[in-house]
Amino acid sequence: MVRRAMGSRSAGRGAVRGARRPEVRLPELRAWSGGGLEPDGDYDGLEFREADLAGQDGAGARFMDCALTGCVVDEAGLGRARVLDSVLTGLRGVGTQLAESTFRDVELVDARLGGAQMHGAVLERVVIRGGKIDFLNLREARLTDVVFESCVLVEPDFAGARLERVEFADCALRAADFGNATLEDVDLRGAAPLEITRGLGRLSGAVISTGQLLDLAPALAAELGMRVE
After folding, report:
1. Mean of the pLDDT values across residues 106-128?
2. Which residues make Cβ contacts (< 8 Å) with residue 140, sequence separation at least 6?
3. Residue 214: helix, strand or coil by DSSP?
4. What is the pTM assigned to this prediction?
5. Which of 22, 64, 185, 189 has a 20 to 30 A CA-CA distance from 123?
6. Does some domain include residue 14?
């Protein structure tokens, strides 16, 4: 696998530092033979194509230089898993358990997920492109150099998370929770719509557009206890 981190196209735009995007180049892959995931399993240079991983227990497993394409991950147990230098395309599932997992140099493309549990996870140099993710739980997670691009996020929960060099590019962000989150160089200008239900007072360290500020003004006034008459 050959990879290099790439600066985002928006780097240097305004005062915000852009996220470093991964460029993942997979080696020649071997087809996964199936048989089910194993806790603390080690998966290196494998292609999982249209595999049914629903309900399987891969807690603590390591996926290195892997491609997961069209896989079903309903209620898959992947807590504390490590996904490194990999491309995940067309994943679909509800209730996938990914608490305290690590994603580093990963592309997640066209996912259709609901209720993915990623509290306490670590995401570093990750691009989430296309698809729709409902009720994503990223509480207390750490996101560094992460790009949400051309995707739809419905009620994502970033409460207590730390976001550094995170971009939302051509991304719908609906009913997001940033309560107690810490933001640094977070670019929200590409989010449309930008809907924040909690944590508006935690947006120090983020950049938004003038139009977004006007849209958020009523909720921001309410968050600060201001009366507008």
Report:
1. 98
2. 119, 120, 159, 160, 161
3. helix
4. 0.90
5. 189
6. no
Band of pLDDT at residue 147, cut at 50, 70 and 90: very high
Least confident of 12-26, 79-93, 152-166: 12-26
And the tokens for 132?
């729709």
Average pLDDT over residues 61-67: 98
Q: The domain spanning residue 46 has which CATH number? A: 2.160.20.80
Tokens for 52, please give them. 């049914």
- Domain-embedded: residue 32: no
Closest listed residue to residue 66, CA positions, set 222, 78, 153, 10? 78
Distance CA 95, CA 118 (A): 10
Name the amino acid, one letter, at 153. L
Cα separation, 13 vs 209, whole angstroms: 12
Q: Is 215 exposed, middle or buried (0-12, 13-18, 19+ CB in 10 A)?
A: middle
